[in-house]
Amino acid sequence: MSFVWPTYVWYAESAVGVPLYIVVLVTLRQYATTSQSYRNTFYVLFFQHGIADLLSMIFYLLISIKYVEPIRTFVFTYQEYYLAAGTYNFIYYTLYIRCCGIVLLTLQRFCTVVFSHTAFNKALQKMAPWKIVVIYWTVPTLLSLVALKDTGMYFDENMSLYTDKAIISRNTLMAVIVVFVTCLICVFSYAVIFIFVRTHMLSSALRRELNLSVQLLGLVFAFLLMFIYYALQYSFSINQNAGPIFTMRSLYPMINGFLSYINPFMIVFLNKEIARGVGRLLLGHNIRMDPKIRGSRKTSTKNERVTPIQ
Q: Is residue 11 part of a domain?
């Protein structure tokens, strides 16, 4: 196997990103046991999105070791049992899971900030966690059925993956559309949020909700990169099934890793409570939320003071 530099970048991203992501999710889980604020719709979605990101990276790690014996021989021998097809199809499945997840997170932030006092938003915030989990995983699974049903893929002796040009063109076009629509929804939502906060007076509680929205901006930027990637991939797949196609595939680990790993860094850098919990967990201390923090948050929701946005 010839490792190209994007793969090395992905390994570096994973070496830092996976442990950090796990620590962030453990911190959120611990906070959820002591604070109602960390059991709301946003953090339930965020936790599911973290699981999806980690599963995506684990899946790609399994793909990357298919060159290593005896795994190589096993995969090559039994590739017709959906091993070759799954290697290709699940790339799109994990992409669509994260696309839908970011849309759900963005729309939740949009409703919380812009329609904070509506009955719909109140019902959204009180939605049962199991319903959120079902929605999070069902929507992208249904969307991925188009790709998951394909089986016409095979490995050659060098473990390079081949499939029909028509399948590549269809899947990359669908990926371009899904990523583009995702970006469009996110950009539109944040544009409306920006206009809203510039033209309205926000309570202290709503300002906190706005801070949670800022944490997702990194994902929007990552999706712009992913859109550019699939747009180029589609343009190359129209005319050929080699050359630039394989070059673009070599870049996928790095871009895919950036899409997954930017999330924990954003929340640690922009959420002081999470950063404090991560630090305490790494030092081996109890990471349950300080009762003073819980008490102050309850007080702030009762005594909301309206302040202008600068």
A: no
Range of the domain at 151: 27-294
Q: How many domains does the chain have?
A: 1
Q: Is-contact 234 174, C-beta < 8 A?
A: no
pLDDT digits (tens, 9 = 90+) for 21-64: 999 999 999 898 888 888 889 899 999 999 999 998 888 888 87
Neighbour count for residue 269 (Cβ, 10 Å): 12
Q: Which helix (H) or strand (E) holds 150?
A: none
Residues near 158 by Cβ (< 8 Å), separated by ≥ 6? none
Kindly state whether residue 5 falls inside one of the protein's structural domains.
Answer: no
Neighbours of 126 (CB within 10 A): 9
CA 300-303-308 angle, to 5 degrees, is 85
For the chain, strand residue ranges (E) read 153-155, 161-163
Token match 């759900």: residue?
104
Specify if 47 maps to a domain. Answer: yes
Q: What's the DSSP call for residue 158?
A: T
Q: Is residue 8 part of a domain?
A: no
What span, in angstroms and rounded, lies between the C-alpha atoms of 134 and 13?
A: 30
- CA-CA distance, 238 to 254, in Å (whole number)? 24
Find the helix packing angle between 244-270 and 272-282, rounded to 10°.
100
In tens, the pLDDT along 63-122 reads 878 888 888 899 899 898 899 999 889 989 998 999 999 999 999 988 988 888 889 888
- What CATH number is given to the structural domain containing 197? 1.20.1070.10
Q: Which amino acid is at 167?
A: I
